[in-house]
Amino acid sequence: MPSHGLPSISQRTQRRLIFGLLALGMFFRLFHFFNNRSFFIDELFLNVNIIKMGFRELATLPFEYEQKAPLGYLWSARFFVALFGKQEQALRLFSLLCGVAGLFLFVPVARFFLKSWGTVLAVGLLALAYPVVYHAVEAKQYSAELLGTIVALYLYIRFKDKQSLGALVAWGVLGGLLPWFSFPSIFVLAGIGAGVGLRAALQHDWKRVAQYLIPGALWVLSFGLVYHFFVSKYQDSGWLTYFFKIKYEGYLPLLQPVAAAKWAVMKTYDFLSHPMGVLLQVDNSRYSFGLKHLLKMGWLYLPLIAAGTYYFFKRSQQHFLVLFLPLGFTLLASAASQYPFYQRFTLFLGPIIILALALGAQELASRYLPGRRAAYVLLALVLLPSLANSTRQVLDPNRFYNREYYRDAVLFVNDRYQEGDAVYVYWNMRQAYDYYREAYNLKYPATKANPKAKNASTSQADYLRKLQPEFAAFEGKKRLWFIYDNNNRDAIGDFVDQPAWYHEKAMPPGHLLNEHFATLGQEVERFRRGNYEVVLYELTD
């Protein structure tokens, strides 16, 4: 039986704590939005299409760099481009609005599933988690996916007990909008539909089962339209499936029990880092394995999540099914190699696991902590790593997740370019040049390296021979700018680590070409920030 030594906090105190956490969450999001860092590589791949295409083209034409995103997200981002221009903040604005809306809408969701301390904790975890902050200021669809889950849960709360035809149709129509903004929302909708339907069936309430078929049918119809007109038209992405399998172990090896168990342990711990952001970020080189993981505090969060899962099942089987079937469907899709279980792709599951963690803390505190002061200590202990991580990234924005410097490199050349210079953009910087030339009106034309030339080559010498037609553009020029990424070896559409000769560690990207360009002239200036380099050569006659 619960102890009565832990009184609930007053509504006034709860409101104050939630308001303070929301304010902190808003601050972190707005800080990074106005800090306006350079686009990350994935942002470049998608947004070079959004700024070049109109609304009709976004709905009908294939994208460069084999990109895909829900039409609702694409049109929303394009709308803000039409209003505010083609630069980064305009393209991140819809994600920011989704992130802010999700933050505030999560409050009534948390209040429904939780009480008192648990509600405050859940709101704090969502507000402070650095991956959630990051995706709220990323020009990709993941913030909309997070909002999609919160909206789906909010609609469940509002409509689960309704029986009128109008309410059931409204639930179906509003829920049916979600797949147009979030592909994985179908996992959440399927979980909600299966959860309420199964619970009614177990109670032999066949009338209620029939009523739940109304919103369910509308959700299926909506996703069917999205799949038929858009998802099914995407190019075959066998290379991408292979990439996530090899690089990130994104697919559950369900038929290999030992490997599946190891995978589950690894992914559970990784989930605490991203998307939940609760593991304290520490310098791995300074601490032993044991001390590092002690400081990260996974030992605290995993038992709380396990406890919360148990208490959800104990309190309401319907709520348990509604919340955890989406996770089950996602894992099945991962096992079928249809959906990678990895970081940003699992952000939409974040609110569900946050609710479980908060319920675990709430219930364990009510049973075993002696009083309010101890509850405050637990609340602070659970939230402190998230707060520390996000604060550290504000104090040093260069630590912000996925911080890259594409813009710095291409603008370095733009500020120093002289009429008659030649500019050679290596294949792994094409997306940066394509986007920033359009968005920032770069004044220099460039020769762009063919990303497929390396795949058609058998050696370094053969590769240089195949690039000679591109090098012809340097004839008669006095200076040559070479822009490249010294880390990225795999182009969009390439299978990982192929061809083998190109992935030799002794030859990082750009090294071979710098050796060749040094035979054409003298290096006179070099810029490097992160993995992005610019080298200026004065060419000899």
Task: Jot down its keywords.
541 residues, mainly alpha, five-stranded mixed β-sheet, 22 helices, 5 strands, disordered N terminus
Beta-strand content bin: 5-15%
Main sheet record = 5 strands, mixed
Summarize the helix and strand pattern as letters. Answer: HHHHHHHHHHHHHHHHHHHEHEHEHEE
Q: Assign the structural class, choosing from mainly alpha, mainly beta, alpha/beta, alpha+beta, or little secondary structure.
A: mainly alpha
Structure description:
- The chain is mainly α and 541 residues long.
- Helices cover 61% and strands 6% of the residues.
- The chain contains 22 helices and 5 strands.
- Helix 5 packs antiparallel against helix 6 and helix 6 runs parallel beside helix 18.
- The model is unreliable at 1-5 (pLDDT under 50).
